[in-house]
Every structure is written in structure tokens, then in C-alpha cells.
Xaa-Pro aminopeptidase/Xaa-Pro dipeptidase (Deinococcus enclensis), 349 residues
Amino acid sequence: MTQLTRLRDEMRQRGLDALWVSRPANVRYLTGFTSPADGKVLVTQDRATLYTDARYTVQAAEESALPQFIARPPATYEHASADVGRGVVGFEADHLTVAGLEELEAAWPDATLKAAPGLVEELRSCKDDREIEAIRAAQALADRVYAEVRPMIRAGVREADIALEIEQRLRRAGATNAFDVIVASGPRGAMPHGTASDRVMQDGELVTIDMGACLNGYNSDMTRTVAIGTPTDEMRRVYGAVLEAEEAAVQAVKPGARAADLDALARGILERHGLAEAFAHSLGHGVGLMVHEAPGLRGTSEDVLKPGMLVTIEPGAYLPGVGGVRIEDLVLVTEDGYEVLSQAVKETV
Ligand SMILES: CSCC[C@H](N)C(=O)N[C@@H](C)C(=O)N[C@@H](C)C(=O)O
């Protein structure tokens, strides 16, 4: 079943005659258009139109099989009003701004606008073979770059220089950073999102490296924590606890597993090591056209894993003033279990 066919089924079930798609990742997913921030899609039961402007006339025609209408608002809305009519039109309430909604209300006065968050995101959460191969390639590149840069992580080197090496190598390979590279050494390791700073790394420290490649629109995401020399006994104990939680959660990945249960499994292990308070974020998230997407692997999640989902498993422990550890793998949910896509070495510290 194509993506549009599945989307139309969902729309029927929710009583929608049309869906106005504004989130860039969703526009790209439905159209293949690689400048989706400047595109929108109107999907009805018998038509789907890509709207973009004249900067992209040639590009949109090359990239998308959907019919295109090249204009800017208000001409965009005037064209779409023929399909919208008096129907019920869903909008992406978790993306469209209040101003954007007001524009639609003014342009389509006869339509009923209805909040319809998460429709395309739900479809995107299970990847098809082409998407899985794209993410596999992004992760393989990230693994290669990590292996090349790992020997440069040593005392006397700035965090920023490690991030720069990673970014340069990704760019030379035709990719970009999926997000700003996190290089958090020593006490900075207590910041889960400690992007690389001017700090000079020192002997006896742990260093957290969190990096991803964005290749052909698809992202990877992986974290390793490494030691320079010999860290303190306390930090080695924390590393062991996080690794135990990470491995246990990865091994529990399978179709039917509840995301909240996986989060609880990892959290329970860290709690037994006295680190419950130190695990300051969720266990993981889906990865695809966005770095963070469905499913959410957190305590409040109602998501259940299905084959084709690609998720991170990334417990961490963060001790303010002392340091931190995170270990993250990118994991594919298969028909009967899981496959770990991230292959970068996890070291004994
Ligand atoms: C700014 S993108 C950072 C990507 C990083 N690998 C990552 O996912 N970090 C997690 C700690 C994170 O941000 N988790 C989210 C889903 C959360 O717990 O809310």
C-alpha cells in the first residue's frame, strides 16, 4: 500500500475530506520534494497537490511525482479552495502556527477546519525497506567517521576540534550533521546536550560523543562515552550501570513491546545502582526524516513497537559537578526481535 493510500484510509477513519500538510518532514515523506520547508501538500481522497513557489519550479518537477501548483499565498489557498470546498479539512495542529491557521480560516470560509495532529507521523513511524536502507547508510557513515575520529579524543584537545573533525568528514561524504555534535568532557558530561565547547579535554575524564549523519534526508543517532586515561572509580561504576541498562533495554526490543515498559526496564536497573535521579530524560525515540520522531520511548508513552520502527535506546546518568555517561544505539525492530544498526565500538572504561 502506498503512503498516500494509507493516509487516505486514516483520513476516512477520522472523518476528514482533506488534509493540509505543513510539517516539512511530512511534506517530504509524501512528495519526495527536498526543500519541504517551502512546500505544503493538500491531500483529498482523489487528489494530492504539492504547493511550492517559483524558486522550485524545476526542482519540484524533477523530484516529485505529484501534480504541482507553483504560487505563493494567497494564490496557493485560492487554488486549493476548489478541492477544499465545504469539506472537513484536517490541519497539523502540532505544527501549524496560530497565524497559519487564521490564514486558512480566512481563505476557506466554507470549510470546517479540524485539528488532525500526528496522522503522517504515525505512518512515518514504520519505515519501508527503502527508508531502512537510507538510515542504515547514514548510520554506517556515522560509524566510519566515529572510528576515524576516536583516536583524536585525548588530553590536550578541545571538544570543538572533535566536533569539527566529525562535521568535516560527514560533509566530505555528502552528508551533514543530523544535529550539533555533542562532545561533553569531564564535568560537562553532566549536561545531556552539552554541545562541543572550547574546553580542553583532560586525562582521567569521560567524554560523551553524541552524533548523527543526515544523508539523503534520513538521519542516524548514536552516543558513545569514552575514557581518556583512567577515570575515577565512581565514574567507572556509573559507566557500568548505564551499559547494563542499555544492553538490557536493547535486548528487550521486539514487536509488541510497550515503549513505557522498555523505559521502565532501563530506569529500574539504574535505580538499583542508585542512579534513578541521574537519568534525566527518556529512554529513546524514533529516528527517520527527523532526529526525534514517533515512537517515543518514555514512561508516559502509549506506543507499542512494530516491525519497521527505528528507535534509539539511550539511557544516561548525569551527576552535576562530576560528569556523565550516555550510551546510545540505533535499533531496528524486526519481525521477530531487533537488529542494532550502530556498530561503533563500546569501550570498557
Ligand atoms: C538535539 S537532537 C539530540 C539528539 C540526541 N542524540 C538525543 O536524542 N538526546 C536525547 C537525550 C533526547 O533529546 N531525548 C528526548 C527524546 C527526550 O528525552 O525528551
Notes: The chain has a mean pLDDT of 98. Residues 129-149 form the longest helix (21 residues). The CA atoms of residues 146 and 344 lie 7 Å apart.
